[in-house]
Design goal:
Outer membrane lipoprotein wza fold like, 252 residues, four-stranded antiparallel β-sheet, five-stranded mixed β-sheet, 6 helices, 3 domains, wza like fold
C-alpha cells in the first residue's frame, strides 16, 4: 500500500509539473536587455484600396459650395458610426458630384485630398479637401478575453493596441504564436508574430491595417480545451486523496 501511495504522489507531481508554464512563455519582451539601440519604427500610411470607405469633406468660404459638395448623398453610403462616406469601388474610384469618378487607389489620404482638390479646382476655387478612413475594423480571435470585431478610428493600430481591444491575451494565450491574416490585393497573407521579441516594432506587420484578423494560439501546456484544469483543481485532488487515505486508516 505504501508503494501505491508513492506512485499516486509521483503522478500528482507530474500532473502539476506538466500544468506549469515557464515564465518566459508568459512574458513580453524577453530579450529587452539585448537591445543595443532603439529599433526603427516602420510606420507608413495605409494606401487606399478598393472597398475602403472614405469620409471626404470639402471646405469653402462660399456657403453654397459647401452645401453642394457636402450635402449630396447620391453616391454616399452610411457607416456604423453615422458618418456618411464614399465607397471606393472595385477599380479604386470614388464618384464625386459634378466631377465623376476620381481614382484614388494606392494613394495615401493626403495624396487623395490633393488629387480631389485639384479635380474640383476646375469648378470652384479656394477650397480645402479632407479625406479620412471610416468604418475601420479589426477581428480578434482565439485566446483573448473577448473575441470579436472591433472598430477603430486610426489609420492603423499597433498589435498591442489591437489585442487590447479584445481585453488582452487570456491566461492560455501563447505570446509567441500570434497569427496575422491580411488581404494584400488578390492574396490572403498569413504572418506569425512573436510578442516576446523586443524587435517586433521594426517589423512591417507591427501595425494593424483595417480588416486585419488576429488569431492568438493557445499554449501547449494549457490548452483552452482544458480550461477547468487549474492549480485549484490539482490541489483539491491532492486534498481528496489524503482524506481518502486517512479515512481508510492507511499509514504513511
Amino acid at each position: 500500500m505504501k508503494v501505491s501511495i508513492y506512485k499516486a504522489a509521483i503522478i500528482l507531481i507530474l500532473i502539476f509539473t506538466a500544468s506549469c508554464v515557464p515564465l518566459k512563455q508568459l512574458s513580453y519582451f524577453n530579450d529587452l536587455d539585448e537591445l543595443v539601440e532603439p529599433g526603427i519604427n516602420p510606420r507608413t500610411q495605409k494606401l487606399i484600396m478598393p472597398f475602403d470607405k472614405l469620409y471626404i469633406k470639402v471646405i469653402s468660404i462660399d456657403a453654397p459650395t459647401n452645401q453642394i459638395f457636402n450635402d449630396n448623398e447620391e453616391m454616399r453610403s452610411g457607416s456604423s458610426n453615422g458618418v456618411l462616406g464614399y465607397l471606393v469601388d472595385e477599380v479604386g474610384n470614388v464618384n464625386f458630384p459634378f466631377v465623376g469618378n476620381i481614382n484614388v487607389v494606392k494613394l495615401t489620404t493626403a495624396q487623395a485630398s490633393e488629387k480631389i482638390q485639384k479635380a474640383l479646382g476646375d469648378y470652384v476655387s479656394n477650397i480645402s479637401v479632407t479625406v479620412k478612413y471610416i468604418d475601420n475594423q479589426v477581428t480578434v480571435m482565439g485566446e483573448v478575453k473577448n473575441q470579436g470585431v472591433y472598430p477603430f478610428i486610426q489609420d492603423k493600430l499597433n498589435i498591442y493596441e489591437a489585442l487590447g481591444l479584445g481585453g488582452g491575451l487570456s491566461q492560455y494565450g501563447d505570446r509567441r504564436k500570434i497569427i496575422l491574416i491580411r488581404n494584400e490585393g488578390t492574396k490572403i497573407m498569413h504572418y506569425r508574430l512573436d510578442l516576446s521579441d523586443s524587435k517586433i516594432a521594426a517589423k512591417d506587420y507591427y501595425y494593424i491595417l483595417p480588416n486585419d484578423v488576429i488569431v492568438v494560439e493557445p499554449l501547449k501546456a494549457l490548452s483552452s480545451s482544458y480550461q477547468n484544469i487549474t492549480y485549484t483543481t490539482i490541489l483539491s485532488s491532492v486534498t481528496t486523496l489524503i482524506a481518502v487515505l486517512l479515512f481508510t486508516n492507511v499509514k504513511f
